[in-house]
Amino acid sequence: MAIRVREFCSAAAFALVFAGVLRCAASYDRPPSRGMVSVPRSDGRDSSSPDQASDLWIDVNGFLILVLELLISCFVHQLRLKWLKIKVHISMVGKDKMRISWITEDFSTPAIVNYGTTKGGNYQYSSSGTSNSYEYVLYKSGEIHEVVIGPLLPNTTYHYTCGADITHEDFQFKTPPAQFPIKFAVVGDLGQTEWTNSTLQHISGSNYDVLLLPGDLSYADVYQPLWDSFGRLVEPLASQRPWMVTQGNHEIEKIPIIHTHSFTSYNSRWHMPFEESGSDSNLYYSFEVAGVHVIMLGSYTDFKNGSPQYNWLVSDLAKVDRNITPWLVALIHAPWYSTNTAHQGEEESVGMKEAMEELLYEALVDVVFAGHIHAYERFTRVYKDQANPCGPVYINIGDGGNREGLASEYTTPQPKISAFREASFGHGELEMVNASYARWTWHRNDDDQSVVADSVWLRTLKSVSNCKQLMN
User: Fold this and answer.
1) Record's family (predicted)?
2) Which residue of the set 145, 159, 343, 374 is catalytic?
């Protein structure tokens, strides 16, 4: 068995070295990023408590260190050290339900959530769900529990515990409002650095209702314990407000020969409500909240004309009732518009734009958010590379704080369709004030202070008479 473990670890290490070499060869100029962060594990919890991984923290400065970490991970798993205790995140399911997700090292813990509007163990309701786990090379996850609770009242604070024992920690979340105004926090390419921590602190103080994340969550990049530490890092926010995410390239985690399936960890840990929107994949879905229809698309699954994702998007757009949801927002990972020199010409950007841009334009999508490029850029309303009053506003916000640093080089001169661009970490806030107007602000991380560096008022295209004919 020891020889087999060494063989697996050596093969995985070789694959990771090869991936690291390719990543270095394709890199671009970036200033140095901040170090990784460590969130200590809570004390006094038993193995059935929803908690996060050990006090170990990982500083990933190069692919050689990643190889060493992967080797350590293999042997740690074989020794079955009790490190894996993972915390909670929540996501919306339909209009009045919430999915509670958490992981425990105790495989006998039932998937039960007790909840109610009062704190202190006096919970009025209880729901049960499912539990599962996954394997990745020699890593085996803890028990992943999912429970859908509801129906829930809008704009209401609920208290809840995970597991059958109601003496466990009392968490709380607030449901989104049923009508305007509603505020979204938007951040991409988050990672787990000190910049990430600063970004999360700023988001925490924004009084947002729902968080949107257009891909690249943990930057685990096949090293699975980083998924565990990411869960611990975001839990203070992700257990209190719904986090709605889509995948990026760092979620693929496919290793030739060794692990041939893509998105294993992402799909197992971050179950989004794709079934409720008629999608056949967790990689693309939609949801509605308080007068906003949000479409989450997959840049790294088939998007060509006639593909399952393309056909689903056509069907989903046809179901949108702009009288009920006057705002229409889409998220992708690889941006369709960018004047940054990074990631130019990639098929996930060029090909997806060619396949789907017309669909979004004819549906009068108001805003399209993207990540991937580690900088901020906002475009005017655009269609087919030209300013167009009926096109979406494209916003690239892959600047959450990842370990790879910033993409600091832009093409010059700045095109007229590029309204604002800056290579800084930060996050955005989109507040739909009413059925016609919304305010977008981008908050730069400047010496750990949240500074509003870009701001614009938006009008929904549904209310623009010259654009309405496109929907007919």
Assistant:
1) Belongs to the metallophosphoesterase superfamily. Purple acid phosphatase family.
2) 343
